[in-house]
Amino acid sequence: MSLIEILAARIRETGPMTVADYMSECLLHPEHGYYTTRDPLGAAGDFTTAPEISQMFGELLGLSLAQAWLDQGQPAPFSLAELGPGRGTLMADLLRATNAVPGFHNAAEIHLIEASPALRAAQEKALAGFDVHWHAGVEALPDQPLFLVANEFFDALPIRQFRRAGDGWQEKLVGLEGGALAFGLGTAAPQTALAHRLEDTQDGDLVELCGAAGPVTGQIAARITAHGGAALIVDYGDWRSLGDTLQALRSHKRAEVLDAPGNADLTAHVDFEALTLAAKSAGCAFARLCPQGVFLERLGITQRAQALASKLDGDPLTQLIAAHRRLTHPEEMGNLFKVLGLYPAGGTPPPGLDA
Ligand code: SAH
Predict the structure, then answer these.
(1) Cβ(114) to ligand 1 under 6 A?
(2) Are residues 19 and 114 in the same domain?
(3) Is residue 331 in a domain?
């Protein structure tokens, strides 16, 4: 049975499903899930991410984390963790850049949170020679200082969608129409988790709720509060996002969300406010949300690009200049992507970010 048949059978049996259930089946179904069955990254895949665009991204994030580790008195041992490491490129670049930081590698225990067997295999290859621990979820991270990065992880977590109707909300659902998958709306009901959205929405507005984002952030924040550490969370999205941001990408092009379940990447914008609320209730401080371009410029991406450029010419030089622009320019990834930093209350944010 194909995934579309599995989903149709399930809807016939138990009724329309939430967008979150649909997303979760499409991305992580053990046999047919988008991430479980393939490596979707890079030119031959469906999308490209910052670490795949240039080594500079992982290097600079690594140096920011390593400086935060030095500023906190070089705790040892500590968890050097990544959520959704893709091909392992970011972690490999981070490790190469921090090789020169005395004691950092010796104190670091590498922990990767990854759901996809295909991508775990790619990570193993990229990080050959390092002792790596894999886990299915953040709750498995050890109770010790935690220095963590996550790039384009939270946008892959399933979201639910609700349309405002008076003081209640109608949930957007995936059902069947003439045998094909189709969106519909549930009946209006109050939603406690959306109480704060009654103040900034009107009838008909659509809002999104990511059930896993808060608990995942809470687990990270609790470790940083108890043992020290820092987190750099990079993703596209904004503060309290509004509107339908669910999108499907296939071969680098936008596709219809319901058209090819399991064969297209599905993502939604990250509501960074929700992450900070979870961090705050775990007693953790967070830096002001910062556009990716500004963050990378503050960390010296232009100087790093100039150093790399001095050894290049021809196509590689043109590619380097394009990569710098792509990562930082406001019309490319520079403004759409944001960086959220978590750090211990009373401490200082990781370099590149402001309190
Ligand atoms: N950070 C990488 C990859 C981003 S793609 C990069 O920037 O290139 C999203 C990553 O998160 C993939 O590695 C995917 O397999 C992983 N992932 C998605 N949902 C997950 C979940 N619920 N639990 C663990 N890993 C997940």
Answers:
(1) yes
(2) no
(3) yes
